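re: ur question from earlier - yeah i can do the single chain one, its not a big deal. heres the input i used so u can compare w yours
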Amino acid sequence: MKKYFIILLIPLLLLFACKEDVEVIENNIDNDNYKPTPYFFQIPYRFPTKIYIPDDNPMTKEGIELGRLLFYDGRMSGRVHIDSSMSCASCHLQSHAFECGIDSNKFNLNGHPRGITGIFTPHYMLPLINLAWNPNTYLWNGKTKYLEDLTWMGITAPHEMFSDTNKVKALFQSIPGYPPLFKKAFGSDQITVKNMGRAIAQFVRTLVSANSKFDKYMRGEVQLTPEELQGFVLFTTEEGADCFHCHGGDGNPLFTTNLFYNNAKDSVFTDPRDRYHVTFDPTDIGAYKATTLRNIEFTGPYMHDGRFATLDEVINFYSDGLVWSPYVHPLMHKINEGGARLTPSEKKALKAFLLTLSDHDFITNPDFGPPSNFP
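and the output i got, formated as tokens:
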């Protein structure tokens, strides 16, 4: 009996020993010298006052500064050779509103992103815009609740950095300039991937887009053209293009509800990463997040699978290309007509309005761009 008791006791002792090690690392905070500078989040005009910032990851200037460095540092892949480096910014390009865009580059083929090993991502990318207002439903299917988790997921995913978190952590621990930055941001120079995720999430939450022509119009600073105004009316009425139910309008400056819809793209559904495979609710079959339409000019290709290369193709789809299925969302009011049946001039006006959502300050803001140097 004693023999079996000892055998059972050893794993328990190891478990508690491992737990203690983790707690020591996480709680190794120099409270006497840990005085991060709070970051005061500015709510833009007409934006919702409720933002989603976890209690265990308050925004600080030190955390944001560290997050910006990590976001752009190619060593996040756990590799140091220039030809095998990869960062968040390798695919999330500021010039494309932090999406990869349709231009070909090292990690992108005609808008289809692929990881460091050449494996294509299962879905196209979502832009990083105004995520401080995302109610904890990230990715196309809302599977991930926390922005902080996207860092370790990106490090380990075969279709992204395809690395090991311990390898990445050890590499950054060995870079002389980084441990002091982690200590300033989180109170400990012991680098953890959890704190990497916290820092990057803080930086990403600063990526606020709120200075498009439409924003200036709503603030009374500029006027829209007659064509843009016509497009605005089409956007915000059921008799027109009927876009506002899923993407908001003058009452929703985010231009997304952050909810999930089957928007009548298909009649057969085989994707194991739709909303249904998160909720297992049959009404979510073929449903995906309604993305923000802010900076839509820069974020093609469009839809979860990137099937549409241009904004004109998207407008044509909603006008004339809807596909019926039992799972189409009830808010797709035009499904029985196959679409909104817009005239050529209405399509032109709708596009003109959508282009007023382009925020050129957002895609050129130096605070969002790469640092001048790295540790």
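DSSP finds twelve helices and four strands in the chain. not sure if urs matches, ping me
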